[in-house]
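---------- Forwarded message ----------

FYI, see the Sporulation initiation inhibitor protein Soj record below. Original note from H. follows.
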Amino acid sequence: MVPATIDLAAAEIELVPQVAREQRLKKALAAHLREHPVDYIIFDCPPSLGLLTINALVAASEILIPIQCEYYALEGVTQLMRTIQLVREELNPELDLSTILLTMFDARTKLSAQVGEQVRQHFPEQTLVTLIPRSVRLSEAPSYGTTILGYDPQSVGAKAYVKAAGEIARRGAEEPVRSARRGWPQ
């Protein structure tokens, strides 16, 4: 793992005047990977769609989208799908939405179930069966500088993430799901 630091905030500003600014991460990774190959690279992007996120989309081959089971998350997915389509058309035609993970699921509310149902209608093959529940323990872990597995591995949230990881691993062992090119309404 290579965590970001506060210095990354300045990168967005520095990228603006650069030539081929959307390709910078992809080119840097290609050069690095020739010397130091790895099996996986995971970019944990902010929900904003700035140049850093665009660089990650250009460098990536697959996307996993965590979607909170809340109303405004659906609006965000619509915008993200437009952006993904633009990136496919202009910068990375191989970009594939392979996985959607429903998070902050609250079984006590109809809204969580409705959001999950709507996402599954549009992306039936990409959406994991596993739901990540809303959990105080999940919210607390980052404030202690650790993951949920380091903070409380027996919590409901930790067990859900382990289950989701297993589901993703099983999918990876099979033929990859291809692809949600037009799954979400524009």
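H. also flagged this: The mean pLDDT is 88.
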